[in-house]
């Protein structure tokens, strides 16, 4: 089931994006922008990004959640007087709402002195927030304000995830750890948490008791992930989905199968009821599911290697650096693998783990680091939770927070050969020592994006050789040059990411769009914006080479600081 839309007035044609939203009210409150809402609903309007278009029908280029900006140039093409204009604007507003746009911004000057009254009426009719953009405010200023607010919201989100991660790990080390983890989880997701058997029996809970309808739905979800029913979730083999969700009025339910067992060897599930407008709650719950799998798993079922991996997990979650847990991991060199299951395959994560030589019953979490180098949060692999042991070796090291398309992330001993696997797309890092695992995790993620964009079954990250062109320039000089060259993009991470992907994929619009998960026309708009900000010709091979060198210098600098 899907979550209710974040903007009640505009039914979305596509799911909301994963980026933190920016309340429209926050933009309206900025005096430097001078924006003024003149039509449409005012409560609960959330902006995810900005798109500018002067097309009569911008719908094919909208992804949902945008503030669509226009100066009304397309209105000049309408003939037939006021009735024709009213009809045209009514259709324009209706199509914009149907495409999932969150709001419409209309720029005053140079085309129109005021917002057409017919547009105001149309937006009121269709429930589309309409914002007047004054003549002194360029559209780029609005776009910059949104990106700045998104970045700040993302930072707050990562800080929250980091705090929750540490609290959950600390709870796992207390007496009666399962109950302590449930209490910590309920506090950080601001909801209800419970351990349920497949028959609905409760083996511990915390947080405000939900209404009967939510409690009944929680029992059904526990049955689904327990293997006794079907449902919408992330299927991980014949035993049933390892996670499932349900949306109820005022609550988003998520259930996660645990590898541990309850009394009488009953299968257990972690069920969480949280605010439907709180995406980080799912990521936090995933961390708790990993810990509860370790806590409830019988110690006798795990060998010494798995026990060491479990200890490494807790130490990493508490804040230890990878080098500090190296003795617990055993092997001196490790490879990070990111894998995404193809739609046409029914292959389970367990079968992939067997092929890779890694076990999934002791998930190992790798911290996600911020640009400042601090632990910022972690995701959990829904493919790795609730899966029986599949072999010897290392374990999953995390995943994304999206239930519909989970990414399995695994640690594999560096001496094992990794080959393409039927039904899976793989991104593989170079073998690295334990202290370089965070960088290897990023490299594997990049390799997976390239593999998906190229429709290749496997792409490996290749570290530059010691005698490459980078060795001819002092690291400090290269870093200073890169920062100066890319300074106009420093406050726009999406533009830097787009440029990095576009150059790495040889300027392919389609493959870059696939890699970033955006429309190809959005890629074109961003690249055009980048060329303007850098005041350069991106069709020039020399320019591309210099920019790529600069981006790689920043990559190496970020890796070194971590």
Automatic annotation (TrEMBL):
<feature type="domain" description="Purine catabolism PurC-like">
    <location>
        <begin position="27"/>
        <end position="149"/>
    </location>
</feature>
<feature type="compositionally biased region" description="Gly residues">
    <location>
        <begin position="226"/>
        <end position="240"/>
    </location>
</feature>
<dbReference type="InterPro" id="IPR051448">
    <property type="entry name" value="CdaR-like_regulators"/>
</dbReference>
<dbReference type="InterPro" id="IPR012914">
    <property type="entry name" value="PucR_dom"/>
</dbReference>
<protein>
    <recommendedName>
        <fullName>PucR family transcriptional regulator</fullName>
    </recommendedName>
</protein>
<feature type="domain" description="PucR C-terminal helix-turn-helix">
    <location>
        <begin position="495"/>
        <end position="552"/>
    </location>
</feature>
<feature type="region of interest" description="Disordered">
    <location>
        <begin position="225"/>
        <end position="246"/>
    </location>
</feature>
<dbReference type="InterPro" id="IPR042070">
    <property type="entry name" value="PucR_C-HTH_sf"/>
</dbReference>
<dbReference type="Pfam" id="PF07905">
    <property type="entry name" value="PucR"/>
</dbReference>
<dbReference type="Pfam" id="PF13556">
    <property type="entry name" value="HTH_30"/>
</dbReference>
<dbReference type="InterPro" id="IPR025736">
    <property type="entry name" value="PucR_C-HTH_dom"/>
</dbReference>
<feature type="region of interest" description="Disordered">
    <location>
        <begin position="1"/>
        <end position="22"/>
    </location>
</feature>
